[in-house]
Amino acid sequence: MNGATPRVFGLSLSAEHFVLPRLLRKPVRMLSRFGRGEFTPPPYAASMLTAAFLAASSLYGAYVGGHFPALVQGVTARSGFAVDQIKVSGNRETSEIDILDKLELDGWTSLVGFNPEEARERIVSLPWVRDAAVRKVYPDTIEVRVDERDAFAIWQHGSQLSVVEKDGKVIAPFTGGRQVSLPLVIGFGAAERGSDFVAKVQAYPELASRVRGYIRIGERRWDLRLDNGITVKLPENRVDTALADLAALDRDDAILTRDISAIDMRFGDRLVVQLTPEAVERRADALKAKPKVVKAKAGSRT
């Protein structure tokens, strides 16, 4: 007998049984030699296996320890996917610096590891931002589109000033700037109820242009504070009628330019006008002087 027939996985490799395809012959011969103990691995095989094991262990440790995203960031950033451009649109009141701060970029952030949804949630937390969209554009760009809230008025509550929306929701503290031209609504409930009332006054442009403050009184009615200091006290009901009457009085008699401090329109059957202290004093002096004039005229007839 010329020797044992080579066997792999219990199968005889004798030509009497079958002939392997050419592509499988070399791998099968190596397995056969390894099974007979004739195969000697190369001298560097142990080092390669050790290095592969250490690399796999490092990757697994980074994954378990929560450092895998940072590892991906570093590798992909060095591979040409570092964020290099940021495009911001839609922001009028929100500064680009605040938006960039919410992106939390550190100079080597990779576009691959950047999470746009988490960035969007941070941007939406800014006071003026109603909604936002953040998009990655490969290889190196982040696009941010912002939808901002609409300012309606400045609301004075106590000593504080806030910019509010039409529904009364506070946007941010008032700091000046372009909001200085917004209507000023004053008092408790003025922010929530101001939108409808301001619209009614603005139906009379000449009157609205002189209003400096819309004052909510007892959550029941409104006063108007004009640019010359006159206070117009409007009724709780019949507001539309009262505004129309006030506009007509000013158009026909220029009542809002007279030396008065207040116009009380709360009574349906009459209008009460309050003079300024200076006007009261002048009227008192005029009344004192009137009898003397009458006596002088009477003496001249005798």
TrEMBL record:
Compartments reported by the entry: Cell inner membrane; Membrane
Keywords annotated in UniProt: Cell cycle, Cell division, Cell inner membrane, Cell membrane, Membrane, Transmembrane, Transmembrane helix
GO cellular component: cell division site; plasma membrane
GO biological process: cell septum assembly; FtsZ-dependent cytokinesis
Domain spans labelled POTRA: 81-149
InterPro entries in the record: Cell_div_FtsQ/DivIB_C, FtsQ, FtsQ_C_sf, POTRA, POTRA_FtsQ_type
The keyword Signal appears for this protein: no
Signal sequence, start to end: none
UniProt-listed PANTHER family: CELL DIVISION PROTEIN FTSQ
Entry similarity comment: Belongs to the FtsQ/DivIB family. FtsQ subfamily.
Function: Essential cell division protein.
Name of the protein: Cell division protein FtsQ
